[in-house]
Inverse folding.
């Protein structure tokens, strides 16, 4: 299901809306004030740079303390 981010133009709140296949404007209602006036926000995609287990702990023996690679982001700069 696509998820879209919106900003309410009345109360300036931000919120996500889950759509069942495609964006339907009637589904977009601000949960804070109930307004239908909104602006669609640009979402940042998530990119995976390899596989790590869900239980990985980067704090134990982390090279961040020694100035090395932190959290698997080596070479991305």
């Amino acid at each position: 299901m696509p998820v879209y981010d919106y900003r309410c133009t009345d109360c300036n709140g931000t919120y996500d809306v889950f759509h069942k296949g495609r964006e339907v404007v009637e589904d977009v209602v601000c949960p804070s004030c109930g307004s239908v006036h909104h602006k669609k926000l640009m979402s940042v995609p998530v990119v995976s740079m390899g596989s790590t287990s869900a239980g990985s702990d980067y704090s134990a023996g982390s090279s961040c303390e020694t100035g090395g690679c932190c959290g698997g982001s080596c070479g991305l700069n």
User: Anything to note?
Assistant: Residues 1 and 20 are 5 Å apart (CA to CA). The radius of gyration is 19 Å.
